[in-house]
Amino acid sequence: MKFFIDTANINEIKEAAALGILDGVTTNPSLVSKEGKDFRKLLDEILALVDGPVSAEVISTDYDGILKEAREYAAIHRNIVVKVPLIKEGLKAVRTLTAEGIRTNVTLCFSPSQALLAAKAGATYISPFVGRLDDVSTNGMELISQIVQIYRNYDYKTQVLVASIRHPLHVVEAALIGADVCTMPFNVIDKLFNHPLTDIGLEKFLSDWKKTQNKNNLRK
Ligand code: E4P
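A: This is the predicted complex of the input protein with erythose-4-phosphate.
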């Protein structure tokens, strides 16, 4: 499974990249606006830090506008993936962009029928939002199972990019289902490392070692 970080914050991206487990980055207009920086400059910084897919989202909602923005983003760097909303005009644009060899990430997916349409349009990634579904008392992970099953049934090449992840269990469940990618905020990446028994065990190993170090010390 690939791990993407869902942020436009440079420090978080740096920290996640340093961990050696980061495969890519997703951004969205809300995340970018939080940073208060010029998006083009921000993109250049991100692209210099991570050698993997970096999603940049269009803000147009009409076919021509989406194509214009998408081509501009794609021209910036080979790692750019253009994020397009799951609306009719968006999927029409995805079909055209796919024919041009521009990779797309279809965002704001909340149903299996939407995911099926995105695959038919030739999307590179589909982004179902699990956390936002959970927020409205609908099982987000159930949607992931359905999409993975549908894509397997017809051998669609569109990758399932689980988005709106809120906690480590979302990641584990997505991995068990066989989703291709999880994009998550830094705090979730951080939590994946934690287990209280690891901390307790390590503390015990180190304190036991201290007791015997006069006899066994290999390090001075
Ligand atoms: C997807 O690419 C989105 O950026 C993101 O995962 C949305 O997550 P949220 O529901 O936490 O805003």
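The mean pLDDT is 96. The two ends are 41 Å apart (CA to CA).
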